[in-house]
Design a protein that fits this description.
Length: 288
């Protein structure tokens, strides 16, 4: 067993999903509050540690099915690179660190991280086989991250941003299922729930979710509350970048057979990464 295999087991690349924790901080004008920034970073770390613990437990439960998957069979547990006892110890340590850091941030963050753990355990325990509910549970995990970075540290969340986050996470969830369907066919392999989906149904759901992202974010940028809070009406000029990112992701999904791993697409696709950096820079320019 190598240290590299243990790192792969924790999947630190997936920690990029915890960027959702920083949503409230980005739009709160509180970047100069060192204590608040530190607590938001702590909330992100707590979710990172708990996510790693959940990934390990999922890999333990799915290792037999993963061995039949063209990509997942190379995971440390499925390939036998990491033993079951070691994986259990790593999961326990990661979950303990998550709870300790979350409790340091606030009791609210601790409860949100605990809720994230329960939802994921229920998901892995069988709810991932319930069509549509499976994707809503994935989205719930992201919404808990947004709440941890807002309510968990004393920042009042914007309702429009919460709605945007909901549609975005549903879009990513249905995109994941669409990519899995393309890779495995009608429910074959490790995702029996795919038999209850289909490319046409998933494409319709993706269209609804994508439209929801664009509309809710666009309405956020022009709402009187947003203009008053940030002192600018220029956020609307970031909407084309959001549109481009959504369209690029759909392109990767349909023409590059990618999209199963949102974290990988953001980090490895130059168009997605450049779009995110440009959106972040432009947003900060307008509201700072």
């Amino acid at each position: 067993m190598r240290a590299y295999d243990l790192i792969r087991l924790l999947r630190p690349r997936q920690w990029v999903k915890n960027v959702f924790v920083f949503t409230g901080l980005l739009f709160s004008h509180a970047w100069g509050d060192g204590d608040l920034v530190l607590r938001v970073v702590g909330a992100a770390l707590a979710f990172s540690f708990m996510a790693s613990a959940i990934y390990v437990m999922n890999d333990l439960a799915d290792r037999e099915a993963d061995r039949r998957h063209p990509v997942k069979r190379h995971r440390p547990l499925a390939s036998g690179a990491v033993s079951v006892p070691v994986a259990l110890a790593v999961a326990a340590l990661s979950a303990t660190l998550a709870a300790a850091v979350a409790a340091w941030v606030s009791s609210t963050v601790l409860w949100l991280v605990a809720a994230y753990c329960v939802i994921n355990l229920a998901y892995s325990g069988g709810l991932k086989q319930v069509v549509i509910l499976d994707v809503f549970l994935i989205a719930a995990g992201f919404m808990l991250r947004i709440l941890a970075g807002t309510l968990g540290v004393g920042i009042a969340p914007s309702q429009w941003l919460l709605l945007t986050g909901l549609f975005l996470t549903l879009f990513l969830g249905f995109a994941k299922r669409r990519a899995e369907w393309a890779a495995l066919g009608e429910g074959q392999g490790s995702r029996r729930v795919l038999a209850q989906y289909g490319p046409e149904l998933l494409d319709h759901m993706l269209s609804v979710a994508a439209a929801g992202v664009v509309m809710s974010y666009s309405l956020y940028t022009v709402s009187p509350e947003t203009v008053a809070r940030h002192g600018t009406s220029h956020l609307i000029y970031t909407v084309p970048l959001v549109l481009y990112g959504i369209f690029r992701y759909i392109h990767l999904l349909h023409h590059r057979q990618r999209g199963e791993d949102p974290a990988a697409e953001l980090l490895l696709d130059p168009h997605m990464l450049a779009t995110f950096v440009a959106w972040l820079a432009l947003t900060l320019w307008f509201i700072a």
